[in-house]
Amino acid sequence: MTEFGDFISxxxxxxxxxxxxxxxxxxxxxxxxxxxxxxxxxxVDVPHHCDxxxxxxxxxxxxxxxxxxxxxxxxxxxxxxxxxxxxPVDWDLASIMVYGLNATEKCSNGLVYPSAQPPSLxxxxxxxxDRKDLNDISQSVYMVGLLxxxxxxxxxxxxxxxxxxxLISILLQGLxxxxxxxxxxxxxxxAFRCVVGASVSGIxxxxxxxxxxxxxxxxxxxxxxxxxxxVAIGQMLLAGLSxxxxxxxxxxIAGSAPxxxxxxxxxxxxxxxxxxxxxxxxxxxxxxLQKAASINKRTIPPGLLEQLKPETQTKSGSTLDLFxxxxxxxxxxxxxxxxxAVSLVYYGLSLSVxxxxxxxxxxxxxxxxxxxxxxxxxIFLLQWFGRKKTQxxxxxxxxxxxxxxxxxxxxxxxxxxxxxxxxxxxxxASFSTSYVYSxxxxxxxxxxxxxxxxxxRGWRGSWPx
Length: 465
Fold this sequence. Notes:
The protein is an all-alpha fold. It contains 19 helices and four strands.
C-alpha cells in the first residue's frame, strides 16, 4: 500500500520547494520575540515620586528640592520614598518648615516622572507602587492568549486547513499588534495582548504543521530548527529596535506593522498536501504535489499519482486520548514535565533581562546571539547522541545554571549575566529538542491534542514570578 511519505520521497524530501516554504513560514517568527519579550523594554524602571504640588499653593517660590524635602519621607538609605508622601495639611509654609510633617499616605494626586523620559508603558499607565503587579499580570494574560490560540486554532487547522489559519493568524497579529499602540486604557491593552498571544500560537502551530507535512521524515528536525533560528535573529533585532525607539507606542507599531508586508502569502503559500488527502480533496493534492515536484526538478510517476487515495483515518484525537493508552499516558506525563521545566527556565531567563545588572539592550542582544549556535548545535547533537540523552543533559545543565546564579552576590552582575547566557544557551537547545522530540513521539492523530496540552504546561511554567 502506498503511503504519503512515498510522494514526498518522489518529489524530494528537502528540495528548493521545501526550502522556500520553510523560509516563508519562518519570516513571521522574526516578530515572535517582540510579542513575547518586547514589553520588558516598555516598563523599564525609572525614578518617580508622588505628586506633591499641593504645597505650591502656600509656597509658590519653593525650589523643586525644597518641595520634595518638605513633602516626601525618606527611606533607610536616605533617598526619597517613591510610593508615599506626607499627608497634606492646612498649615502655612512657616509652620511646615518649623515643625515638619509626620503623617504619611500613599500617592493621592498621581506620580511625577523625569520630564525628559520618553513615553513608556510604565509612565503612561503608572505601573508602579500599587499597580506594579499589573505588568506581570499583563504578561500572564499574553500567555493565556497562547493557550486559547492553541485550543482554538489547533482544531480549526485540522478542520479548515493549515493555510487559512496561518493567514488569519498573521492578519490578527498585525491588526491587534498595531491596535495596541492606540489603546487608551491598560485593561484594553491587556485584552489586545491576549488576542496577539492567540495569533502567535496559531502561527506557531500551523507553521510547524506545514513544515513537517511537506518535508521528509529525515529532514524534519533540520526544517524545524532552521525556523527556530529566525526566532533567535528576531531577539537580536528586538534589542536594536527597542534601543532606537524608546516611545512605547511607536515601538509597538514598529514591531507589529511588518506583518502586513506578508500579504503576498495569499498567492504563494500552499496548503498541506497531506491535509488535502485526509479531507478527500485528491485533485487539489495532486496539483500541489506536481507543482512542488516541478520546482524541485523532479517528476512524480503517473502510476504513483493514481494511487493517491483518501486516508481512511481522518478523525482528530482529543486531549483525553493522550491518557487512554498506558504507553501514551506515560509519554504525555513525562513530556508535560519536560515542557514545564524548559518553559520555566527559558522564559524565566528571557523575561529577567532587566534584572541582571548590565545594560539591558546588550544583554538582550547577547541572549539572541547565543540562541543561534544553540539551535544549530541541536541539529548535530540530535544526530550524534539521539533525543533522550541530549534532552536529559540539556535540562540538567539548564537547571544547574539557574541554581548557581542564585548563589552569586548582587554586586557581581557580570558573573550573573555570563551564567545566564550559558543557561539561555542550554535552555534554548532544550526547547528546540522538545519540539522535535514531541513531534516524533506522538502519533499524527493526537498531535494537535498534544499541542494544546503542551501549551497548558508551557503557560504554567512561564507564568511571571
